[in-house]
Structure formats: structure tokens, C-alpha cells
Amino acid sequence: MLVAVVSAEKSSVAAIVVVFQVASVAIDVMKAVLEVIAVILIVLEAIVVMKAVAVTV
User: Fold this and answer.
1) Tens of pLDDT along 1-57?
2) What is the pTM of this model?
3) Torsion angle of alpha carbons 35, 40, 46, 47, nearest 10°?
4) With 0-12 CB in 10 A as exposed, 13-18 as middle and 19+ as buried, what is 1?
5) d(CA 31, CA 50)
6) Angstrom distance (rounded) from CA 25 to CA 3
7) Residue environment code for 30-48, b if the CB has 16+ CB neighbours within 10 A, otherwise e
8) Which of 3, 12, 22, 42 is most solvent-facing, going by the fewest CB within 10 Å?
């Protein structure tokens, strides 16, 4: 009985660790996606500015 409880606790701890690892990976992926979006927005903004400059010149 005790052995079963201990092994169950170990497996639940392992599951929690896995969940945390997955969460940290997901957070890293989200950060990367946000960085890519930020770069795209900067590029689009630069294109808009270039078009505006081209129109005024």
C-alpha cells in the first residue's frame, strides 16, 4: 500500500515537472512569435514611411 502511494506521488511529481517544462517551452515559443510579429510590424511601418517619403519627394 505504502509503495503504491509513493510511486503515485513520484509519477504525479513527474507529471507536474513535465507540465512545467511544456509551459516554459510554450512561453518561449510565444516570445519568439511576438518577436517575429514585432519585426514584421517594424518592416511594414518602414514600408509605409518609405511610401510617404516617395510621395512627398
Assistant:
1) 566 666 778 888 899 999 999 999 999 999 999 999 999 999 999 999 999 998 887
2) 0.57
3) 180
4) exposed
5) 28
6) 33
7) eeeeeeeeeeeeeeeeeee
8) 3
